[in-house]
Every structure is written in C-alpha cells, then in structure tokens.
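Consider the tokenized backbone below.
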C-alpha cells in the first residue's frame, strides 16, 4: 500500500513536474512562435509616396534574404499610410502602439510626422527605427534609448553640401526649400559649413510643404544672381523643382547644388533637366563593392526596379532590427539587451559600413555625386565619417 501510495505520489509529483516542465518550456515557445509585429508607418500617398514604397521594398528584401524570418521569428507587418501629414501623426502612431500592440515601429519619411512618432515612442518605450526622416531632434533634444535611425540627420547632407560649395569657391549663395523641419535644418547645416568655409548665404527662400509653385522664387533668384543655389526638395516636389529651374533658364547661368534627395529616385521623371547636377548624400548608385552590387542585383531581380537611397535605408532598418533580435534570440521582451546590441551595431550597408553615434544616428561617409543618365554617380567623398553633433541629447 505504502509502495503504491508512494508510487502514486511519485507519479503525481512527476506529472506535476512534467506539466511544469511543459508549461515552462511551452510559455516562451508560445511567445516565440508568435510573429514579431512590425508597424510600418510610411507615406503611401502624396508627394513622398514613392519614397515610402521604396523603404518598404528595401525592408522586405532583407527579411526575404534571411528566409522570411529574423532571428528565427516570422514578421507580421501592420501598415499605416501617414500621408506625410503631421496633424494625423499622433493618432496614426497610437493606433500602432495601443491598438495593434506592435513590437517595433518603422517609420517614416517626413520629419514633422517622425517627430510626433518619436514622442509617442519615447513615452511608451516602443522600439522605433527611422528609415528616412532627418529631423535633428530625433537624435538630438528628443533622443531616447529606444529610438534609432538608419538614414541621416538633416544637418548631415546640408553640412556636407556646404563643404563642397565652399571648396568650389562660391561666395554668395541662396537657398530654397520647403518651410518645415527637414528643409530648415538642411539649410542650417549647409549654412554652417558654407560660412565656415568663407561663403555667405545672402537669402533663404521657402514655400509651404508640399507646394510646388516655384515661379516667384525662381524670378527672385534670377534677380539676385547668386554664385550658387542650394536646394532641399524630395520626391514629387524635387521632380518639379529641377524641371522648373531648367525651364526658367537658370540651370545654364547659376549652378544648382542640393542634398542628394533632389535627384534620388527622381531621375527618370526629371530627364534632361537633371543631367550634370551635383549633390551630396550617404549613397550613390555606382558604389562598386560586392555588398552594394549584390544588393542592387537582388533588388532589381526582385522588383524589376533599380533601388535608390530610400530602398537602401529601409534595407538597413531591417538589418539593424536583425542585430537587436539576434542578440536576444528573437525574444523581443529583452529590450535592454536588444538596445545594447543595436547601439554597438556595425551595419554592413550597401552604402559602406556604418556605426551608430552615441545618440543613435549613423556615422557615415557623405559622397559627392553627379547625375549621369539615370544614375547618381559617386565622384568623390565630401566628408568622411561624418557624425551628427547630437545637440541637446541627454540619454
Ligand atoms: C524629411 O522630411 O526629413 C525628409 C523627407 C524626404 C527626404 C529627406 C528628408 O528625401
């Protein structure tokens, strides 16, 4: 009897232990079996629609290259069209954070929208990776441990173009852009480097985002006759600006420089008007490395399209997420360990290897590019390993 009892007891204890073992093993397996939820908040309509599409294509390409999983986990995408509208940004991002309970937010293109997203990400602690928007504050005054960027700060391409303009010996510059964070901060970066190099910005012209009625401003440029014009426009607005600058006869008389967004992803639509334009950016079409060639070939085969800077930034957003996930074997609940790995990441990017600044912005080379045919051809390096100053960041 006692043997039987003890046997029963032992059996019961074993069952409990086995059940516990099953439970202990099963709980994480269950969590790990769920897909990781990625909130893609990007513009799918409006002047930046093509940019959002390229970012998503780039992101998905990297995931596909890993067999459709990161760190052994499937991804589930939840998509929101942010329309590049800052007024809708807080509601849109909160849908992803509160309603959909995403593990990571990836977005966006427009600086004003991204600033609202970063505020919500900081408040909620949700991991956020910015695959384009350059708003300086995201890795400056509004920086946070859980917010990373795989693109650039607005200051960076502005500053590197200012270096080039001063080196070319121009003395009097005019600037033209949309009046919002990206335009104003890019111009500020340009002015900082250009004036340090001995130039002077004589006039800053702006129009509201996303307007494209450039005529009055082009007339003013013609009247002032500066040595050079610096422009920040992107997407559909960049196409129209470059064509209008040419049609106004200015391309022949006043050199036009820009941050590379002026001619990236836009060349087919800009045609002859873009030929010969010089810009600076952290990417160029002809970077002749095995990494970039493999990326471009894979992208072209997959989508029947050439990639651009936006596709590359989206691809690298997925790479950075993979670094974090690999460090925790796919367990997204270990956020601190993910962040620690992402901070130290050395991303093997098609642009060239880059690292993260202490404020989580890429420290990277800025290339000089010239438009030849349908390509932004790298002709030199404007600034090597340019790090954003990260002004105002306390982490
Ligand atoms: C931005 O709003 O930060 C922005 C948008 C488009 C670009 C670059 C920056 O190409």
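A designed sequence for it:
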């Amino acid at each position: 009897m006692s043997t039987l009892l003890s046997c029963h007891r032992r059996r019961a204890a074993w069952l409990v232990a086995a059940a516990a073992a099953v439970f202990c093993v099963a709980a994480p397996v269950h969590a790990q079996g769920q897909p990781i939820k990625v909130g893609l908040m990007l513009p799918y309509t409006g002047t930046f629609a093509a940019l959002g599409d390229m970012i998503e294509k780039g992101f998905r390409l990297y995931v596909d290259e890993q067999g459709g999983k990161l760190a052994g986990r499937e991804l589930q995408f939840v998509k929101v069209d942010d329309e590049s509208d800052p007024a809708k940004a807080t509601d849109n991002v909160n849908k992803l954070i509160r309603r959909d309970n995403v593990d990571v937010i990836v977005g966006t293109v427009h600086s004003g929208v991204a600033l609202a997203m970063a505020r919500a990400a900081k408040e909620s602690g949700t991991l956020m990776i910015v695959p384009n928007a350059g708003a300086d504050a995201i890795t400056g005054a509004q920086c946070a441990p859980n917010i990373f960027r795989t693109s650039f700060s607005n200051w960076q391409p502005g500053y590197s173009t200012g270096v080039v303009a001063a080196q070319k010996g121009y003395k009097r510059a005019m600037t033209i852009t949309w009046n919002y964070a990206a335009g104003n901060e890019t111009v500020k970066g340009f002015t900082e480097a250009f004036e340090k190099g001995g130039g002077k910005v004589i006039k800053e012209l702006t129009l509201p985002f996303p307007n494209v009625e450039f005529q009055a401003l082009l007339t003013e440029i013609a009247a002032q006759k500066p040595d050079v014009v610096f422009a920040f426009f992107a997407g559909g607005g960049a196409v129209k600006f470059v064509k209008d600058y040419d049609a106004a006869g200015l391309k022949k008389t006043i050199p036009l420089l820009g941050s590379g967004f002026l001619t990236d992803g836009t060349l087919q639509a800009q045609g002859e008007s873009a030929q010969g334009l010089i810009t600076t950016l952290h990417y160029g079409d002809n970077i002749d490395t095995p990494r970039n060639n493999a990326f471009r070939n894979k992208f072209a085969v997959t989508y029947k399209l050439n990639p651009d800077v936006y596709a590359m930034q989206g691809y690298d957003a997925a790479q950075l997420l993979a670094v974090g996930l690999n460090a925790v074997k796919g367990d997204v609940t270990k956020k601190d360990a993910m962040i620690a790995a992402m901070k130290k990441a050395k991303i093997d990017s098609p642009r060239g290897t880059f690292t993260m600044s202490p404020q989580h912005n890429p420290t990277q080379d800025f290339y000089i590019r010239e438009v030849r045919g349908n390509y932004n051809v790298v002709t030199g390096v404007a600034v090597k390993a340019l790090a954003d100053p990260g002004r105002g960041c306390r982490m």
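Residues 109-111, 132-135, 182, 234, 261 surround P-hydroxybenzoic acid (CB under 6 Å).
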